[in-house]
Amino acid sequence: MRGISHRSRIAWRDSRDARHRHRRLFFVFYDPFWPYFAYSPFCYYYVAPALYAGPPAYVWAPVYGGAPYPAPLAEAPPDELAAANSGAEAYAFPRQGEEAFRAGDYKAATRAWRHAIVDEPNNGALLLRLSQALFASGEYDEAAGATQQALMLLPEEKWPAEFRAATRLYARPQDYKEQLKGLEKAVRENPDDPALRFELGFQYGFSGRRAEAVRELDKLLQLAPQDQLGRRLKEVLSVKISGEGSGAANAGELSR
Question: Does 1 fall in a domain?
Answer without folding.
Answer: no
